[in-house]
Each structure stands twice: as C-alpha cells, then as structure tokens.
Design brief:
The structure holds two protein chains of two kinds.
Chain A lengths: L8 H13 L5 H12 L5 H14 L2 E5 L12 E5 L1 H22 L1
Antiparallel strand pairs in A: 1-2
Helix pairs in contact in A: 1-2
Chain B lengths: L2 H30 L8 H30 L8 H28 L3 E3 L2 E3 L18 H10 L2 H43 L1 H23 L1
Antiparallel strand pairs in B: 1-2
Helix pairs in contact in B: 1-2, 1-3, 2-3, 4-5, 5-6
Classes of the chains: A mainly alpha, B mainly alpha.
Chain lengths: 105, 215
C-alpha cells in the first residue's frame, strides 16, 4: 500500500459500516449505522463522496438495486467491501496497534 | 420500460391534461364567487354535488398519478422520461392541494340568504393522510442540480429517510425543514459549482456586513 492508499478516519468508519451491514449496505442504512455508532450526524453527500473514493481505490464495489415505493420509485445503490478493503482495514488497524504499543512503552 | 407500463403512463398523462382545465375552472369559480351570493338553493345543492363528484375524480386521478410515480419509471438517462416524471410529480402535488381545497368547501356549512346547507360528510378525507411527501421544490432542485449518477440514487435515499425515520420523529413541518437542509447540504457537497456559488455568496455577505460595521 503506498502513501495515497492509506485510509482516512472516515474511510475506516465507512468500511466498518459496510462490513457490519453486509448485503444490505446502501445509502440509508450506512448513514444510520455511522450516526448510531459514532454519534456523528453525517450527510448523504459525505457518505457517497467517501464511498466513491473507496471505489476508485478498489476497496469497495457497487451495484444498482430495485426501486421501491418509499423511495419515490428511485433505485438503491448497494455497496460491498472487497478483499482490498479488508486488507487496507487490517493494515490500518495494525498501524494503530503498533503506534499504541509505542505509546505505552 | 415495458410497453404496457408506458401505455399506462401515457393514459394517466392524458387524463391529467383533460382534467386540468376542469380543475382550474372549479378552483377559480370557488375562489371568486362567494357562495352566499348564489340565488337559488337548489343550484347551490347541485354545485356542491358537482364539487363532490369532481373531488372523487381527482382522488382517482391522484391514485393513478401516485401509482405511475411509484412504478419505477424514473430513468435519469432519458430526458423525455424525466420530463414526464416531473409533470406527474407536479400534477400529483397540485391534485392533493385541490382535493384538500374541495374537501374544505364540501365539508363546511354553506350559507345563503334564509337557508343554511349543512356540511356534507366525506367518506375518506385526505386531511388525515398518513404519508406526506417531501417538499416538491427541494426534490426538483435535487433533480436539477445533481449529476446523472447522483440523481438516480440520492433523492431516493433522502426520501426514504424522510418517510421512514424523520417524519415519525419530527412531524410534518420538522421533517420538511430537515429535507430542505439536507437538500442544500447534499447539493453543496456533490455539486462543485453550487458549492463555489454558495461559498462565494457567503463571503460576499460577510464582506458586506464588515463594510456596514466599519462605516
């Protein structure tokens, strides 16, 4: 992983939300999951901007779903974490553990 | 889109077109002619019966327009389709307003010199509609200012959140305010031109305030 591929804090949160939601990961549940677990009221714009950045890096993939009644006939865009995303998350966690180890030494 | 679906949408749009003039006439007449000036009691009764019939027609039409909107015929790739979608959305919105207006007229007492026509009950009034829609102006702005890819998904997310979570928590007014704030923040986040216009506007307002304070 080069310097540009390092995960930002919010990117990590979004990836973890995708891991938790599994198959049901689209805009509304992702935003809700982040809001409930972090206490931050994030906007859909911020969530999609991050997801698209992660998709460009190859950490997540997306597909269009079926439109539903409560969405005014619009489709859902489902996201899924890819192997590269899991590796990046693990690498990020390892870095934090190593840095935490130094701090406690 | 399947042919049958397209045919149904075309039929609904035709009905909307045909009823538009009737709606306009009824509305203008009701707003401009005070009921108390009507001379004949029987005529007043007849007029109110007509309004009740018109209301039922509009309810039917509203259901048709609502079904067409929900039939997932929204397609951001086709401008013609997007135009029809917004025509239906606007018609649906106007229909609800007109039905409410007619219901208020039908269900109130009508006074004419010497007599009073008692209120007429309405079987299923729209006043208690449980699922108000998000502000149509905000939805239109989203469709107008978002990119094609965002347009297909983001308004749906906002609408779903509005219906399932925000509306039960904050009520209709609070939820509509929430929708407007989210619309502005979403457009500002996703559309770079709008973001710069917004930032530029705020900077200019700030400069103007400083100038006023300084002078």
């Amino acid at each position: 992983m080069d310097g540009n591929d390092r995960l930002g804090r919010f990117e990590e949160i979004v990836l973890l939300a995708l891991m938790r939601l599994r198959e049901n990961a689209y805009g509304v549940p992702i935003r809700r999951e982040i809001a409930e677990r972090t206490g931050r009221d994030v906007s859909f714009g911020a969530v999609y901007t991050t997801l698209e950045r992660l998709e460009r890096k190859g950490y997540v993939s997306s597909r269009m779903g079926e439109p539903t009644h409560e969405r005014g006939g619009r489709a859902k865009r489902y996201f899924r974490i890819e192997a590269g995303g899991i590796t990046a998350l693990n690498s990020s966690r390892d870095t934090i553990v190593r840095m935490g180890g130094l701090a406690h030494a | 889109m399947p042919d049958s679906r397209q045919t149904e949408i075309t039929e609904i749009l035709d009905m909307v077109r045909r009823l538009e003039s009737a709606r306009r006439v009824a509305r203008t007449w009701l707003r401009q002619t005070p009921i108390t000036r009507s001379r004949q009691f029987n005529q007043v009764v007849e007029v109110r019966d007509c309004l009740a019939e018109l209301r039922d027609c509009l309810v039917e039409l509203r259901d048709g327009a609502g079904r067409a909107i929900e039939m997932s015929f929204y397609d951001p790739d086709r401008w013609r389709n997007l135009f029809d979608y917004w025509r239906l959305k606007a018609a649906h919105h106007e229909l609800i307003k007109d039905i409410r207006f007619l219901e208020a007229e039908i269900s109130s007492s009508w006074h004419i010199p010497g007599k009073t026509l008692a209120p007429s009950p309405i079987a299923s009034p729209l006043v208690d509609e449980k699922h108000p829609s998000p502000p149509i102006g905000a939805c239109f702005l989203l469709d107008l200012l978002l990119s094609k890819a965002d347009r297909a998904v983001l308004p749906g997310d906002l609408e779903e959140e509005f219906t399932t979570s925000v509306l039960p928590r904050y009520g209709v007014r609070g939820a509509r305010f929430w929708f407007w704030t989210r619309t502005v923040s979403t457009i500002a986040t996703r559309n770079p031109i709008c973001r710069w216009v917004l930032v530029g506007g705020l900077v200019r307002i700030g400069e103007w305030i400083f100038r006023k304070i300084g002078s």
